[in-house]
Design brief:
Helix content: 55-70%
Number of domains: 2
Number of helices: 9
CATH architecture of the largest domain: 3-Layer(aba) Sandwich
Bound molecules: CO-5-methoxybenzimidazolylcobamide
Strand order of the largest sheet: 2-1-3-4-5
Largest sheet: 5 strands, parallel
Strand content: 5-15%
Order of helices and strands: HHHHEHEHEHEHEH
């Protein structure tokens, strides 16, 4: 199965074909990283472009996302190593009002692969849930946002951490398509990562 075929099948939302294609590519020795970066992620970018141009609508975007998740689930064992000693505890979630979780799941997966213990708070996460996670031992709070309308909730969480007297007890990292380093500075986050591999590097740096 060619990577182009996997790319096309994600766009079409053909989950069983994506599953078969990813299995076949892995069996043929194509690395999980290559499948991710040359088929799955570009396919979601293309779906985003088609949505923006009015060529597809939310239902198509949703089935494509499901197909992507099917492929991602097969890649997970290859991206995540097992038995590593914990590099630290990261509570990660998509901020309040935002349901996009593919990028967040990918970041969580890569962090797990790098030996971090993950508390996945899910999507549409209120700031209080991030604050509560610090009480449960999170050393890093990771927030993801895909909408320009929800990214401000990252700042709300930083303020909530300050109000709870916990800001100096935890590192805050942020990411997601509309998020920038400038925005991270503006809200007082400790770091911004543009993609899942830099998120792993950043988490390591933040915990020294
Ligand atoms: Co939505 N959506 N969506 N969507 N969607 C976008 C984000 C959009 C850019 C599409 C577009 O217009 N081109 C647009 C946002 C526009 C804006 O805000 N400026 C948009 C919109 C408008 C919407 C709705 C409002 C549509 C509607 O209902 N009218 C709606 C909002 C729902 C809500 O959240 N309340 C909506 C809904 C959906 C679906 C549910 C259908 C589906 C999500 C399914 C799911 O996630 N389970 C969906 C999808 C799939 C997309 C696109 C097509 C793909 C997103 C994705 O998964 N990308 C997206 C277009 C696009 O991004 N090109 C779009 C792949 C993923 C691997 O990348 O998430 O960027 P990404 O993650 C990267 C980095 O950003 C980074 O690392 C990841 C890996 O490299 N990263 C972090 C992410 N989080 C990080 C955290 C970190 C560090 C790095 O530290 C903690």
């Amino acid at each position: 199965m060619e990577l182009k075929q996997i790319f096309d099948n994600v766009i079409e939302g053909a989950a069983p074909a994506v599953e078969a294609g990813v299995k076949e590519a892995l069996d043929a020795g194509v690395s999980a990283d290559t499948i991710l970066k040359e088929a799955l992620i570009p396919a979601m970018d293309e779906v985003g472009r088609q949505y923006e141009e009015g060529e597809v609508f939310v239902p198509e975007m949703l089935v494509a996302a499901r197909a992507m998740q099917t492929g991602l689930a097969l890649l997970k064992p290859h991206l995540v190593s097992s038995g590593a000693e914990s590099a630290g505890k990261v509570a990660i979630g998509t901020v309040k009002g935002d349901l996009h979780d593919i990028g967040k799941n990918l970041v969580a997966m890569m962090l797990e692969g790098a030996g971090f213990e993950i508390m996945d708070l899910g999507v549409d996460v209120p700031s209080q849930a991030f604050v509560d996670a610090v009480g449960r031992g999170a050393q890093v709070i990771g927030m993801s946002a895909l909408l320009t309308t929800t990214m401000s909730n990252m700042g709300v969480t930083v303020e909530a951490l300050k109000a709870a007297g916990l800001r100096d007890k935890v590192k805050v990292m942020v990411g997601g398509a509309p998020v920038t380093q400038d925005f991270a500075n503006q809200i007082g986050a400790d770091g911004f990562a543009a993609d899942a591999s830099s998120a792993t590097r950043l988490a390591r740096e933040l915990l020294g």
